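step=encode ok
step=design start
structure_in=
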């Protein structure tokens, strides 16, 4: 859950999000090194008069041609690795289908016979004390922690986007098309997200709440809900 005036990412709750945060820090360090080098060269040019030998030096031209290529490689390799990791779906323990509507989410647990529900935002006037305004829903998604989860995302009317920042998940919901992604929660907890595609007047009122629980609790919850 994000804090007020927070500048960084939310605490990572999945391996993919941990990789994204590490890559973000890596890219910032590269950008800091580039800015420091450019600032040093600007200061040097203002403070000292460069000779014609320095301006026309082929060695300098070679360096400022090769160095940017090396920097791009240092950024591209980890970025491509994370992209492949995000697209990889290997033998999920649970498959969940999310269907975007104006303006609520419908969920189906496809591994169960009769386990499906609609998830609406709780109005502010009905919100219990201590819950988050515009983020709490009447039916949360409950998943087992430390288990690979595949989620299939689609929409029934207009474009939506199923996004939970702390899990590193953001998948577009497109009418007539099935998109899929996967994630693993590394700890129990409640993770909040929202529709991240402008989908109409009540776009702000489509929250997503994922509750990660131990496997025994999930089995008990699924038995109660499907019975």
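sequence_out=
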């Amino acid at each position: 859950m994000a804090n007020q005036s927070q500048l960084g990412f939310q605490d990572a709750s999945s391996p993919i999000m941990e990789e994204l945060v590490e890559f973000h820090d890596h890219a910032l360090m590269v950008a800091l090194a580039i800015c420091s080098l450019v600032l040093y060269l600007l200061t040097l040019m203002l403070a000292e008069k460069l000779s014609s030998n320095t301006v026309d030096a082929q060695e300098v031209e070679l360096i400022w041609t090769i160095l940017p290529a090396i920097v791009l490689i240092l950024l591209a390799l980890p970025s491509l690795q994370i992209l492949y990791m995000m697209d990889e779906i290997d033998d999920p323990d649970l498959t969940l289908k999310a269907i975007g509507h104006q303006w609520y989410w419908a969920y189906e647990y496809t591994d169960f016979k009769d386990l499906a529900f609609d998830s609406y935002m709780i109005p502010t006037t009905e919100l219990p004390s201590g819950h988050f305004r515009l983020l709490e829903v009447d039916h949360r998604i409950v998943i087992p922690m430390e288990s690979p989860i595949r989620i299939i995302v689609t929409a029934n009317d207009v474009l939506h986007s199923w996004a939970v920042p702390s899990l590193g998940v953001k998948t577009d919901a497109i009418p007539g098309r099935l998109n899929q992604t996967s994630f693993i929660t590394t700890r129990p907890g409640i993770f909040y997200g929202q529709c991240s595609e402008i989908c109409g007047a009540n776009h702000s009122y489509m929250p997503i709440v994922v509750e990660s629980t131990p496997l025994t609790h999930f089995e008990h919850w699924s038995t109660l809900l499907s019975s």
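step=design ok
step=annotate ok -> The CA atoms of residues 41 and 198 lie 44 Å apart.
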